[in-house]
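To whoever is covering the structure queue this week,

Two jobs came back overnight. Logging them here so there's a record in the thread.

Job A:
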Amino acid sequence: MTISIRTFLRSSRGLRATLAVALAAALAPLAAQADPVRLGGTGSALATMAQLAQAYRTLDPSFQLEVVPNLGSGGGLKALAAGSVQLAVASRALKPEEAAAGLRAVEYGRTPFLIATTKAGVTDLTRAQIADLYAGRTSHWGDGQPVRLVLRPASDGDSALLASLSPEIKSALATAMAREGMVTGMTDQDAVDAIERLPGGLGTASLALLQSERRRAHPVSIDGIAPTPANVLAGRYPYVKQLYVVTRVGAPASVAGFVAFIGSEAGRRVLADTGHAVAPAGTVTASAAPQR
């Protein structure tokens, strides 16, 4: 079949137009999908943030969150200041130099800080018993199984929180850290991994981590008071991790939108379902206070 040059040119223009429309349609989903927001920081918050992002995508399907593991609070804040992540989560307030570098923190919730174990039947410990366990005065459980303590680095916030339970526990923790051969979890996840791996394991954790990651380790009441959000809000259980979401000044709209969602009614429901003591609406305030 022979066609004229004019017919060929007309059909070519039509073909090019058709291909252009098809290409635009194929690329549209890629253009609509925003670059992922990178987040890092305290291990107690990472799984919760992933669940919050999943809930937020019902409002903004283009939102994507990339969670960077194993940074810790300090590492997450350094990464945020350096621009390696766009969002950080921390279990402490900002230091003056961090606030001066343009970081802004909002406390979004509190979660019980607790003693965790997989040991069946261990559901409550007094502070005196905790001191005996860390000092080594109690080295075996009631059935004769050895107690395997999992420590955190001396500089970690969990160590400071544990030491704050009582002067006796502070002294016992120092004794435990001086012993050779102790297991140390460098991150929140590492610590719970070790507690679950070691028969008779015991160490510190947060309720948010245990619930959001659906861990096998279970929380232990202290002096008969269970580490629940309700007891935290009622003032009966005073041992908590304060959790902050941290941004840079002038954060992009994608970050600001997600942070706003965390404080929304839908976001607060996610927090309540993942072991957080969520204060009444309107009571969460921004914080750039120095760490003391």
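Job B:
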Amino acid sequence: MERIGKKLKNKINQLKNIIIQENFIEFIKKISIYLKKNLKKVLICFPPIDFLIFYFSIVNLKKRIKAEENIDDILETAGYYKINYKKINAEEWEDPQKISYERKGVELCKGKYEGYGKYRFNLCQEKESIKKLLKRVKSLGPSVIMEIGTASGGSLYTWCRYLKDLEMIISIDFDFNGREKLFKSFAPEKEMHFIEGDSHDQNVFEKVSKILKSKKVDFIYIDADHSYEGVKKDFEMYKRFASNNTIIGLHDICHFGTGVPKFWKEIKRFYKTEEFGEKLQKNGLVYLKRV
């Protein structure tokens, strides 16, 4: 009891010193500002509150899944970008780096799934681009897929929901922020693996190798590091898990200001490729079977 009393006395003295040094009014102001900014973050991480947020998010997601009948319904759940190309003038296309997603002409259509806290997700893709890609990938019948760069989980949701014949899904991301349990609910009947870390890290590569054993990946989707070096390294590293019939998807192949268009231009010389979408938002597909 004496030790506890001493600790409490020390804490009170520390608090007194802070108040004296800071000026009481200013100290209270700082505390108020901190709580205003961070209290919500602190509370939603508190286990009972996190459980409730997750529970109500899952209830809403299950309702949406029941309402899905086709690919358009799946995309309506996840949300997407809608681009009005008429509002983006020719002068801007001459200098595409000026184009941003916050401008007039690019609208984020919020998904019909209503999640809470960290259990929200949105598909950061133009609708027609991802729709065409999904249809092409489905026609090739993949059973094992890998996504490099999952972010909030929007594209992962579309793979899980639309590619019905999947047996295994591997997702790699730098930080899942504890959302793996939400992602598992996208396809609870499938074998799903989540690997957290830098996709260029050898440890991450080895974890993928242990999961796959002798299996090959049928479809790899790369949407992580958008630098030229980054996307090239992801392509070169993970195509080692591919067969001759594997297809590799790349997002933002025309997104200037990143290194993806440069890599896309190079890769087209060596492989059969296909493009989906218009100028601002395009997906590319690489067929590893040599031309």
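Note for Job B: The mean pLDDT is 84.

Please reply-all if you pick these up so we don't duplicate work.
Q.
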